[in-house]
Design a protein that fits this description.
Shape: globular
Strand order of the largest sheet: 14-11-13-12-16-17-15-18
Order of helices and strands: HEEEEEHEHHEEHEEEHEEHEEHEEHEHH
CATH class of the largest domain: Alpha Beta
Helix content: 10-25%
Number of domains: 2
Bound molecules: flavin-adenine dinucleotide
Number of strands: 18
Structural class: alpha+beta
């Protein structure tokens, strides 16, 4: 094992501050040896790709850091398929693709790694191109029992079918993915309409967005103030009648600014004006992601609920935000996967953050997060398991709300392919 005592330089501050036991860079046999993990507190191997979550490094745990040796990106110009290592971050992927006028439906940040893809991957482009998992063409990696696997879409034997489906949405529980083959998309200009709005305006925009065409999506952040981004991919669509109609309706909100970007790569979400402390070295955080269907007549009640949640925010760093799915993400023609809540239109997340050594504040903040979650459940009853919370009491409930009727199959896969629970527990 390659022991390295340097700090793990990663975006997530909880993980960055963790006093991990070992740092390993290669998938090697010793990883799968249960003797390397103590049985206390179900110690398991932590895997780090983008390093944006609180579960990629923990006090006293070993981390496999894929960023050093699994970081290749290769685009095949004939097929336009890209092959990336399991430690590639989304920013590097779209930078590479940009040189060839291609792109990929990444999320709102360029920092996340392969964890973004393997846990589903909700992009502002998803309404037109599906989730990140819908664009997976092949994978290579290791199951938790050390077995090497190499799977290609359309060439999956019946016995591997369940593994293939589970990789798409639940890979972290039973596998280490070292290589992913992905479809890429033509890179197009993007129009962003953004700015602060009041609750009534947000309500109107949400209502309008539920009938947006697939090249448009809404994202909003409810912090001290409310900020929105309307994302419009301009294919040949500037002339597209429906897009034009919606853009005209949005003209009614004169405070919103419009700007056309050459491609997705140029856009930065999360405005500095909101003064969120995300990635501030003095703050630790947890995030929980929810899923729900069209809000329709519930929008005014939701806004009331969001106001209550905001009134109870323990500090200015906490917030609730949302992304929009729908259109292509509701279709099943990409094949079955473990992202089971295909009817979802909204993916809100609750961001809970506290001064890192202030345990009292942490308690208050986590309490706020759970209370806000329970208030939002009536609108968004399901979970998008983008962050693994096996260190939190909510883990079991999150698992069952994330995997629904496929949870039992996931448990079976875990028992067969990660029998010693080397990887994060269910
Ligand atoms: C600023 C920001 C913006 C975000 N925006 C979006 C968004 O728009 N849409 C969205 O869907 N999500 C979004 N996310 C959530 C993010 O995609 C998930 O939390 C994702 O799991 C992070 O992956 P990572 O590789 O960066 O994290 P890491 O902390 O490195 O990994 C998280 C966990 O995933 C597993 N994992 C990672 N790589 C592998 C691998 N190769 N093989 C097996 N298991 C692996 C491991 O269990 C690991 O502990 C955002 C997160 C942040 C911080």
């Amino acid at each position: 094992m390659n022991k390295n005592n340097n700090l793990l330089l990663i975006p997530n501050i909880n993980s960055k501050d963790a006093k991990f036991k070992e740092l390993i860079y290669n998938v090697e046999d010793s990883l799968f040896n249960k003797e390397n993990y103590s049985n206390k507190e179900s110690e398991h191997l932590c895997v780090c790709s983008g390093g944006t979550t609180s579960s990629c490094a923990k006090n006293g745990y070993t981390t496999l850091d894929l960023r050093k040796n699994y970081n290749k990106i290769q685009l095949d110009r004939e097929s336009n398929l890209v092959t990336i290592g399991g430690g590639v971050i989304m920013g590097h992927l779209i930078n590479h693709l940009e040189k060839h006028n291609r792109s990929f439906p990444i999320g709102l940040s360029k920092l996340p790694g392969a964890g973004y893809i393997l846990t589903g991957g909700v992009s502002p482009l998803s309404r037109a191109y599906g989730l990140a998992i819908d664009n997976i063409e092949s994978i290579k990696g290791f199951l938790g029992n050390g077995t090497f696997i190499s799977l290609k879409k359309n060439q999956i034997s019946q016995e591997k079918q369940l593994i293939w489906e589970a990789i798409k949405g639940a890979a972290p529980f039973f596998s280490i993915i070292t290589e992913i083959g992905l479809k890429t998309i033509q890179s197009n200009p993007i129009l962003i309409i953004e700015g602060f709005v009041n609750p009534t305006e947000l309500s109107e925009i949400i209502q309008l967005s539920e009938v947006f065409p697939e090249n448009m999506s809404l994202q909003w952040i409810y912090a001290k103030r409310i900020y929105i981004y309307i994302f419009v991919e301009l294919k040949n669509n500037l002339e597209d009648k429906r897009t034009k109609e919606y853009l005209l309706l949005l003209e009614k909100l004169p405070t919103l600014e419009k700007k056309i970007y050459k491609n997705f790569n140029e856009i930065n979400f999360f405005p500095k004006e909101l003064e969120l402390y995300e990635l501030n070295a003095n703050y630790h955080s947890e995030v929980i992601s929810l899923l729900g269907e069209d809000l329709k007549n519930d929008i005014p009640v939701l806004i009331k609920c969001l106001n209550e949640i905001r009134d109870n925010m323990p500090n200015n760093s906490c917030y609730v935000a949302s992304q929009q799915l729908g259109c292509k993400t509701k279709k099943l023609n990409h094949g079955s996967s473990f992202f089971v809540h295909r009817k979802s239109t909204w993916k809100p997340w609750i961001y809970a953050s506290w001064k890192k050594n202030d345990l009292q504040e942490k308690k208050v903040v986590m309490n706020w997060m759970y209370k806000s979650w329970s208030k939002l459940k009536r609108f968004y009853p399901n979970i998008h398991l983008a962050q693994l919370h096996n260190h939190l009491n909510s883990h079991r409930e999150e698992l069952s709300l994330a995997f629904g009727n496929r949870f039992e199959e996931l448990k079976t896969l875990k028992n067969i392919f990660d029998p010693q629970s080397i990887l994060p527990p269910l």
